[in-house]
Amino acid sequence: MEYEIIRSSRKTLALTIDKDGKLIVRAPCRFPESRIEEFIKEKSDWIEKHSAAASKRSEQRNERLSLPPKELPLWGKLSPVSHKKPYGYIDGVVHLPENMSLEALLPYLRKLYAAIAKETLIPRTYAAAERMGFEITAVRINSAKTRWGSCSAQRSINLSRMLIAADPKLIDYVIVHELCHTVHMDHSPAFWKLVERYIPDFRERREALKDVQKVLSEYGLDQ
Fold first, then answer.
1. Which residues, 6+ apart, have CB-to-CB distance to 118 below 8 Å?
2. DSSP calls for 94-117
3. Helix axis angle, 189-198 relative to 168-180, nearest 10°?
4. Cα 125 to the chain's mean position, in Å?
5. CATH 3.30.2010.10 domain position(s) in the chain
6. Rounded-to-integer distance, Cα 83 and Cα 62, Å
7. Within 13 Å of residue 146, how many CA atoms lie on the same side as its CB?
8. Stated pTM of the model
């Protein structure tokens, strides 16, 4: 079986299957490749099961990308698609050109998501900061693919445009998470205690964001 090895300062071996069904091995820097191969053989049943599932998801994703979309992920649900002009996001409906595949529409959709995010997430963040007593210098929307948000040492907050695919409760968790970084620029116990003060169920919301990432991947919006 073909696989990719990613070496780092980690102390243990770990296996992951990417969205296309490829096996990724994460290993310590000097770990012998012979032992990696033995580990892969030991985990062959797990690899086969998860690789097949990933391949199936990849096929479904490619099929979805080849067709015009009927719905798109927004605000924790799937919003319907219409083909009436003007195009854009109007009253909970995404208006798009007819007879265009989802793949062909992706560049436009990324811009549309960014526009919706700027219109909604920026004022939502400023309102939360004022309500909770946090001081921030700016709020920006970016195209980050692996991070929902970030906070600089200057107390400037960045939020991913794709965050609008999440339920508002999950969005609020991300906003509070970044606001708390204006006080603690790390993930220390003190930081998580501050997050918990405002979001008691933050662990559940943090876990739920993984499902949002999966949905975005299914629609090609994670790129």
1. 141
2. EE--TT--HHHHHHHHHHHHHHHH
3. 140
4. 19
5. 71-218
6. 22
7. 0
8. 0.83
- Inter-CA distances, 173 with 3, 44, 129, 138, 205, Å: 36, 38, 13, 18, 7
Question: Would you state the structure tokens that stand for residue 167, as one six-digit string?
Answer: 């339920």
Q: Where are the beta strands (DSSP E) in the chain?
A: 3-8, 14-17, 23-28, 71-74, 77-82, 88-90, 93-95, 138-142, 149-151, 156-160
Residue 9 exposed, middle or buried by CB count within 10 Å (0-12, 13-18, 19+): exposed
The DSSP output letter for 161 is: G
* Tokens matching residue 128: 């939360």
Question: Is 189 in a helix, a strand, or coil?
Answer: helix
| CATH, range 71-218 | 3.30.2010.10
Q: Which two tokens stand for residue 177?
A: 């998470």
Q: How many angstroms separate the CA atoms of 31 and 85, rounded?
A: 59
161-216: per-residue pLDDT in tens?
999 999 999 999 999 999 999 999 999 999 999 999 999 999 999 999 999 999 99
